[in-house]
Write a structure and sequence with these properties.
The chain is mainly α. Helix content is 74%, strand content 0%. It has a single domain, classed as NusB-like (N-utilizing Substance Protein B Homolog, Chain A), CATH 1.10.940.10. Helix 1 (3-17) crosses helix 4 (80-95) and helix 3 crosses helix 4.
Length: 133
């Protein structure tokens, strides 16, 4: 499975975690994997699950960084799609040495185009630019 598709699945799980408790997420993740039209192989599922769990563990730290840099915005005011994308990209920027910063930002913007409102790509790009600036 391509990295961009893996990232998209991780984004969806991060988004889902906004609407489900931590205790519910293992079951939600299992149901999500079962619902995929193109099933993920074991290695891909493991990659997605590990990265998703790592993001959840880092959420307080990531949100603190986001709240410091997102002028006029806090994570509590952001749209859920944009927030999930920013959290994923922030994790990749600060905690995933395998992902170059420019790739993390570009992929988040592309997913914002697919899943967000018209203003989502520029918002996500702006917040991420401030995080790395």
């Amino acid at each position: 499975m391509k990295r961009s598709l893996l990232r998209e699945h991780i984004f969806i799980l991060v988004f889902m975690s906004e609407f489900n408790s931590v205790d519910e997420m293992p079951e939600k993740m299992r149901l999500y994997f079962e619902s995929l039209e193109e099933p993920a192989d074991d290695a891909s599922e493991e990659y997605i699950e590990v990265k998703f769990k790592n993001i959840l563990e880092k959420l307080p730290e990531l949100d603190e960084k986001i709240n410091e840099k997102a002028e006029g915005w806090t994570t509590s005011r952001m749209g859920k799609v944009e927030l999930a994308l920013i959290r994923l990209a922030a994790y990749e920027i600060f905690d995933d040495e395998d992902v170059p910063t420019s790739v993390a930002i570009n992929e988040a913007v592309e997913l914002a185009k697919k899943y967000g409102q018209d203003s989502a790509p520029s918002f996500v790009n702006g917040v991420l630019a401030k995080l790395v600036g």
